[in-house]
Every structure is written in C-alpha cells, then in structure tokens.
Fold this sequence. Notes:
Blueprint: E1 4-8, E2 28-31, E3 44-45, E4 57-60, E5 63-69, E6 83-90, E7 93-94, E8 103-114, E9 121-128, E10 133-140, E11 151-158, E12 163-172, E13 176-184, E14 187-194, E15 199-206, E16 215-222, H1 236-239, E17 254-267
Antiparallel strand pairs: 1-15, 2-3, 2-6, 4-5, 5-17, 6-7, 6-16, 8-13, 8-17, 9-10, 9-16, 10-11, 11-12, 13-14, 14-15
Amino acid sequence: MYRLLRGLGGLLWATGVLASPVPTLEQWKITLPIDGDGNGRADEVFPASAGFHPPWFESQGPRLVFRAHAGGARTSSGTAFARSELREMQDGRLAAWSCATSARSLLLEQRLLATPPARPEVVIGQIHDARNDNLMLKYVGSRGQAGQEDKGRIEVLWNNARQRQVLDAAYRLGDTMRVRLTLSAGVVRVSYRNLSHADAIEIEAPLGAAVGGCYFKAGLYLQACSLTDDGGVPNVACGKKGWAPERHDAPEAMGVLEILDIQLGGEDDTRAQ
C-alpha cells in the first residue's frame, strides 16, 4: 500500500510541478482552546493573522507558537480534545478541494516542545474532508514522562488510521522537523526529515474516497483530555473514552508547538469541487 524510500534528505525536497507556495496566514483560520464569547465552543478567527491571542497563539519573530491545554475549550460537545490549530481557507471561505484530482502541497518546518504528560499524543498536521481523517501526522510519546525533553515517535496515519507508518522512531521534543505533504491523483507523498538526523524518509499514502472537499490543517491538536474543562465543567466526551484514571490529564496540562515555516502550494481541479 505504500512505497518506502530512505536516503539523503536533499534528494527528497524537489517541488515537482506544483505552483510556488504562498506562505501567508491570510489563507488560514485559527481555532483557539478558549471560549471568549461564552457560546460554549472554541473561538475561531479568520484570518489567523487577526487571531493572535497569547499564550495560545502568538508570533515570536518568525515563529508561530501554538499552545493548547487538556481542559481547553473544544469545537463541540462531542469532541474530547482542545486545539490551537490552523484550518485552510480559500478566497475567504472554507477550502474544499478534490482529494482525488487536485495537486496540492503543504510544507511545515516545526518543532514540538511539550505534551500533556498522562497521554502524550498530539496531531501536528492533517488532511481532512467533511467527515474523515484522510491523513494525520502524529507524535506519540511514552506515558509517565514529564511532557518536556521526552522522546517518542512521529508517525503518519491515513484513511482514518487504517494504515500507518512510523517516520521517526527517535523524535525528541524540541527537534526541528521538515515535512512536505504533496497530493497528486489521490496519492499523498509524505517527505519527512528530522533536521538533527542525517537521513530522511518518504512514503506514498493512497487515499480512499473523500466525503466532500478536502483541506489542510496545521498546528497543535491534543489527543489528551481532562475529565473537567476550565471552571470545573465536565468533559463528557472525555469521560466516554473509557480510559484508566491515570490516562486523564489535569486541565492545565499543556502542549506547545512552534512552526518556523508554513507554505501552501498547488492548484485545484475545480471541475471536481
């Protein structure tokens, strides 16, 4: 189902036929782990450049810093996890291009700095459609660590996690990674390099049928939750996970991600929208 290639990183970063990337936050919406307007859902701001809200989302020189906590506001009552995450937009509307026929790319240079300690799992890049997790880039650490300076693995999961591949079995929090997702004819080429390692890895992930249009997401989406949100409100969706008590984090348990570079590229096949 996938083709695995290893070699020097410099061989893996050709841009191919895709259009020049446009690194701008005007093409993104930000979802924050706070409910400032009191409507019971996580706040969202478009364009993302208007949504800087320290410490949850801020610019520190050329870096974008994302923070989310296990007790943060969520996008709906049916969602267990909080996020500080970008969602791709297109001409001021929600992006929705064809996963089957569009040629698209996303380049991320980023480093994960901290995770919640009880469940150190964080999604740090996605291709999504109206219903499915078409592809996820994920960090998975070991339970019982401090959530800082820990070591875990970076893996890619596609088609709602029915297929997966480890990209980096020795990722240490704070390492800088460069990831390019290149989609063409329904197949995503995932090129990954930990910049502290000599080698890079590339796989091809064929996507199944999408529901509606697809779009990129980037930033920090926790896979950890607390049984109560900020203010002591029960997180019912978290409780339904059925985890052992030690798998639930404290509401203040934090994840932190820095994005050093983010670039979108490619063209849509508008006939398939």
